[in-house]
Amino acid sequence: SRLSRFITSENTTVDQAFFDAVAADKDLGATRGIDATLKAFKLNAILLPTDVSSTPAAIAGYPIVTVPLGFLPADTPLAPAEPVRESGPNQPFGLSFLGTAFSEFDLVSFAFAYEQATHTRLKQLAFAEAIPKTQLADVVGR
């Protein structure tokens, strides 16, 4: 029955193996991962391509900020949607800034400085169908 499945699912959170796995992830992602890298190389942040950067931050529970890095060439073949497209013409790709716990302010500052220096987001305009017809200013505060 639904009730018994619900009770069973609720009981899975008290399994010691779950808590051991969470602790191992935290140790690997934070202590021996991001924190160890920042300390060993005397870094304020770690920069990675966006497509590979979210896992370490997610495992550690640490902040991550992503900014535009560039665009694939216009002649890039359109990959099949399985369920999402991995690549296509003018597809943007990003650069992620990872930091330690509570480093959000620094990461946003670094990302902002990068965006101001490069203006990458302005190098490829959105196609007409992707531009919203209604803007926030049209609906907020009415």
From TrEMBL:
Taxonomy, superkingdom: Eukaryota
Annotated coiled-coil segments of the chain: none
InterPro entries: AS_sf
Protein name per the record: Amidase domain-containing protein
